[in-house]
Specification:
With 70 residues, this protein is of the alpha+beta class. Helices cover 13% and strands 30% of the residues. Strands 4-3-2-1-5 form a five-stranded antiparallel beta sheet. The mean pLDDT is 92.
Length: 70
């Protein structure tokens, strides 16, 4: 799955979708899709990632207390 880094605008290939959708995990492993060579994997804060279309990630992916929201 590809997401976009809000700060750099670069695409990030998410390496573990289960971690992405788990609201108790703050970081997700991914690789920046930049240049022609494969970049080393690193942890990305979910709060800095959006869908390539510009939409935010679903709240249930990033907020462990999303059910308690008013």
């Amino acid at each position: 799955m590809l997401l976009k880094n809000k700060e750099s605008g670069n695409l990030v290939e998410i390496l573990d979708v289960q971690t992405l959708i788990n609201p108790s995990k703050e970081k997700v492993p991914g690789q920046t899709q930049e240049g022609q060579e494969e970049q080393d994997p690193e942890g990305y804060s979910k709060h800095n990632l959006i869908f390539p279309s510009g939409e935010e990630l679903p709240r249930c992916w990033v907020d462990v207390n999303y059910n308690n929201a008013a």
